[in-house]
C-alpha cells in the first residue's frame, strides 16, 4: 500500500474509532468530536475543555447543520490543517 493509501486508511479508521462510540456510528457527536480533538490534535485547534471553543469548532465543521460531523465534514478539517502545515513547512525551507 502506498503512503497516501495508508494515510487515507488511517483517516477512515481513526474517524470510525470515534464516530462508533455513541449514536449514529457514521457521524461524530459533539462528545465524540471533543474526544477526537483531544486525542488526535491536542491543543492545536484550541482547548476543547473550553466549551465555547468546542462549540465554535463543532459549528464550523457541521456545515449542513444536522448537529453531527460526518466524514465529509471531518475531511475538510483535515484538508485545511494539512494545507496549513504544508505552507508552514514551505516557509521554513
Ligand atoms: Ca453535519
UniProtKB/TrEMBL annotation:
InterPro entries, sorted: EF-hand-dom_pair, EF_Hand_1_Ca_BS, EF_hand_dom, S-100_dom, S100/CaBP7/8-like_CS, S100_Ca-bd_sub
GO MF, any single term: calcium ion binding
Which Gene Ontology cellular-component terms appear in the entry? Answer: cytoplasm
* Pfam families listed in its UniProt record: S_100 (PF01023)
Q: Does the keyword Cytoplasm apply?
A: no
Ranges for domain EF-hand come to 49-84
Q: Which SUPFAM superfamilies does UniProt cross-reference here?
A: EF-hand
Q: Which UniProt keywords apply?
A: Calcium, Metal-binding, Repeat
The keyword GTP-binding is assigned to this record: no
Name of protein: Protein S100
Species annotation = Monopterus albus (Swamp eel)
Taxonomy, top ranks, is:
Eukaryota, Metazoa, Chordata, Craniata, Vertebrata
